[in-house]
């Protein structure tokens, strides 16, 4: 039995699956990965992306932050790919109980997934730092000035994404721990498992069906019950719900 056949058999036998995904889930929708060879870290800006996407940089240089953010992080034309769609189908069939994602693009919801835990927030939620009014991603993208301002009070708008130097939302983390610790199958896909505290979440899994699907090696490969080094679309495309 091949690794993929083994994976399909596991999915068939499981009815409490949690999927934990990173940037590799969305690269097949045309959204650039942070760390891959052609990813964001190799783009030419005055500062490295990790610096630009930090809380202190956003506060100090909002114009430069938004130039990068609009250019690289707001991929509003992207469509869900086969992985997003299959996960939504598996949830509708009662098999997937939650999707835990490090992505901020909202593609899981667009594909139809209902229980999505966004560890790093979402580009689709933005708020005024002064009065708290909420704005959608289109408002931020289409705002005529360099830094989007609140149409109610003139305050600066901040995306509801977790920047470097900021902590993760405690409730989202607790929910992720709950679902992962109760799962009979944990599928990890498209993540380097290098970013903490998110990567530490797999420590809460207690089952024996830990599947790791990633094109490149990760620090957690030895812990997987099943390791598949392939693109997510190639694997999920074979699931029949």
UniProtKB/TrEMBL annotation:
Binding site for NAD(+): 23, 27, 34-35, 102, 104-105, 120, 191-192, 214
Major subcellular site: cytoplasm
GO annotations of cellular component type: cytoplasm
MF-aspect GO terms: histone deacetylase activity, NAD-dependent; NAD+ binding; zinc ion binding
Entry EC number(s): 2.3.1.286
Domain Deacetylase sirtuin-type positions: 1-241
SUPFAM superfamilies for the chain: DHS-like NAD/FAD-binding domain
Named cofactor requirement(s): Zn(2+)
Active-site residues, as the UniProt record annotates them: 120 (proton acceptor)
Localization (cell): Cytoplasm
Keywords, alphabetical: Cytoplasm, Metal-binding, NAD, Transferase, Zinc
Origin superkingdom: Bacteria
InterPro entries: DHS-like_NAD/FAD-binding_dom, NAD-dep_sirtuin_deacylases, Sirtuin, Sirtuin_cat_small_dom_sf, Sirtuin_class_U, Ssirtuin_cat_dom
Cofactor note: Binds 1 zinc ion per subunit.
Catalytic activity of the protein: N(6)-acetyl-L-lysyl-[protein] + NAD(+) + H2O = 2''-O-acetyl-ADP-D-ribose + nicotinamide + L-lysyl-[protein]
Positions of Zn(2+) binding: 128, 131, 150, 153
Binding-site positions, nicotinamide: 34, 104-105
PANTHER family reported for this sequence: NAD-DEPENDENT PROTEIN DEACYLASE, NAD-DEPENDENT PROTEIN DEACYLASE SIRTUIN-5, MITOCHONDRIAL-RELATED
General function of this protein: NAD-dependent protein deacetylase which modulates the activities of several enzymes which are inactive in their acetylated form.
Matches recorded under NCBIfam families: PRK00481.1-1 (NF001752)
The family this protein is said to belong to: Belongs to the sirtuin family. Class U subfamily.
Protein name per the record: NAD-dependent protein deacetylase
């Amino acid at each position: 039995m091949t690794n993929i056949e083994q994976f399909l058999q596991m999915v068939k036998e499981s009815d409490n699956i949690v999927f934990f995904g990173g940037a590799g889930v969305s690269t097949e929708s045309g959204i650039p990965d942070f760390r891959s060879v052609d990813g964001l870290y190799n783009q030419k800006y005055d500062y490295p992306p990790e610096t630009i996407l930090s809380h202190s940089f956003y506060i100090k240089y909002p114009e430069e932050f938004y130039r990068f953010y609009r250019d690289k992080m707001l991929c509003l034309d992207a469509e869900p790919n086969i992985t997003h769609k299959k996960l939504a189908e598996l949830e509708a069939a009662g098999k997937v109980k939650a999707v835990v994602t490090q992505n901020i693009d909202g593609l899981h919801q667009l594909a139809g997934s209902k229980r999505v835990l966004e560890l790093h927030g979402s580009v689709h939620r933005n708020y005024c730092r002064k009065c708290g009014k909420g704005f959608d991603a289109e408002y931020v993208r289409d705002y005529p000035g360099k830094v989007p301002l609140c149409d109610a009070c003139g305050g600066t708008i901040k995306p509801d994404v977790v920047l470097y130097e900021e902590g993760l939302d405690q409730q989202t983390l607790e929910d992720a721990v709950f679902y992962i610790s109760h799962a009979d199958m944990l599928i990890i896909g498209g993540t380097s498992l290098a970013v903490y505290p998110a990567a530490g979440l797999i420590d809460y899994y207690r089952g024996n069906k830990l599947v790791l699907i990633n094109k490149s090696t990760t620090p957690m490969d030895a812990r997987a019950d099943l390791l598949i080094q392939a693109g997510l679309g190639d694997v999920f495309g074979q699931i029949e719900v």
